[in-house]
Design goal:
The chain is mainly alpha-helical. Helix content is 76%, strand content 6%. The chain contains 5 helices and 2 strands; from the N terminus they run H-E-H-H-H-E-H. Helix 2 (26-32) runs parallel beside helix 5 (155-167) and helix 3 packs antiparallel against helix 4 (77-130). The longest helix has 54 residues, at 77-130. The protein is rod-shaped. Residues 7-15 have low confidence and may be disordered.
């Protein structure tokens, strides 16, 4: 009976698998990921180009308004009101177009970032499966790890894998 209990205990302990748990500092991972850096650089250059375009259009519109103000002195009041009304309508159309363009740019940037986040999550999952992890937890902003031993931090390993795959 005693041998049977010992045998059962040995079988029980040997069948219990040790969970391998790691964590990744998500903020560090994303900040170091070359694809995210490229995405931010691309978005920033598009935003700067948009700002230059917006400023140029705004400046041209202001010059047109100034010109109309100078011309309106020699116009009848009714003609000046019509010209100002037309100018105001053009200003609204231009403003709406610029606003729509900015919103499109932001939506496209957000969609690309969402795709990148999905890709990173898939790579973390693949890394965990390929390296025998039971769990990989997220640390950093909004993460669920309040403490993790540095030996369990797999951020650099995953970052290396991500950046190597990005080069391909």
């Amino acid at each position: 009976m005693k041998k049977l209990m010992i045998l059962a205990a040995v079988v029980l302990f040997s069948s219990c698998q040790q969970n391998k748990i790691g964590f990744v500092d998500y903020t560090t991972l994303m900040d170091g990921y070359s694809k995210k850096q490229e995405l931010e650089t691309s978005y920033n250059s598009r935003a700067e180009a948009y700002a230059r375009k917006r400023d140029s259009i705004s400046q041209a519109f202001q010059m047109e308004a100034q010109s109309l103000q100078n011309k309106s002195k020699s116009m009848s009041q009714q003609q000046a009101q019509e010209e100002y009304g037309a100018l105001q309508q053009r200003g609204q159309v231009i403003g709406n177009q610029l606003q729509q363009e900015e919103q499109r740019m932001q939506q496209q940037g957000q969609q690309k970032m969402d795709s990148l986040i999905t890709e990173v999550r898939e790579r973390i999952s693949d890394f965990g499966k390929n390296n025998g992890y039971t769990y990989i937890l997220a640390a950093g902003e909004g993460g669920s790890v309040l403490y993790g031993a540095e030996s369990q931090d797999v951020t650099e390993e995953i970052l290396k894998v991500l950046n190597e795959e990005a080069k391909k």
